[in-house]
Amino acid sequence: MKKKHIATSGGVRAVALVLAALVLSGDVAAHGTSFNYKDALTKSIMFLEAQRSGKLPHNNRIKWRGDSGMEDGKLAHVDLTGGYYDAGDNVKYGLPLAFTVTTLAWAALAFKPELQKTGELKNVHAAIKWGTDYFLKCATKKNHMWVQVGDPNLDHQCWVRPENMNTPRTLYQIDDKTPGTEIAAETAAALAAASLVFRNEKAYSRRLVNKAKLLYQFGKSHLKTYDGECPFYCSYSGYNDELLWAATWLYMATKRQVYADFISHEAISSSVAEFSWDLKYPGAQVLLAELNMTASGGLQSFKTQADNFVCAVLPDTPFHQVFITPGGMIHLRDGANSQYVTGTAFLFVVYADWLHRAGEKVMCGDTPIKPERLREFAKQQMDYLLGANPMGRSYVVGFGVNPPTQPHHRGASTPVLKPGTVVNCGMSFGDWFAPDRPNPNELTGAIMGGPDGADKFIDKRNASACTEPCTYINSLAIGPLAALAGRGPKLVASH
Question: Which residues does the UniProt record annotate as the domain Glycoside hydrolase family (predicted)?
Answer without folding.
Answer: 37-479
